[in-house]
Amino acid sequence: AAAGLSYVGAYVINTYKSYDNFLQDKYALLPAVIIICVAVVMFIIGLIGCCATFRESRVGLGLFLAIILVIFIAEVSAFVLGFVYREKVKTDVQGTMRSVFEKYDGKNAESTVVDYLQEQLHCCGVKNYSDWTTTQWFNSTGNNSVPLSCCQQEAKNCTGHLDQPQEL
Q1: Helix, strand or coil for residue 161?
Q2: Is the pTM above the cut of 0.70?
Q3: Dihedral (CA of 124, 127, 128, 132) sign
């Protein structure tokens, strides 16, 4: 389990590099770091449990039980906090995404990240393609279209024009 959690934590940190423009708050990596720390603690606790079982030590098994109970309480607390603050996180992420979409010009680093995100997640805009109509890029181009990264992969002749929403 510790190895699995270590992999998940490392994967989240590695994936973060692709989306760091959207998550300007560096505390967004905190869950991944916590996951890796939990993996290390789980490995140590597992060793304590194995050693206590191997030696048939009542004190060691009691310590193991106490540690497992503390971890269970921490997990329940984390779940409750995640549930309570889920809307705040959603609002913060959407606000940051909107600010990155506002910086889109088709050439800068933010533009590359926006295009990558839309292609990977098969989406267009923060909520839908109409989000693009309020951006500076949309108003400056004047061609009533969204970036080509909004196009569905199956659409061969997609131009990003808003008069063809079925291709977005």
Answers
A1: strand
A2: no
A3: negative
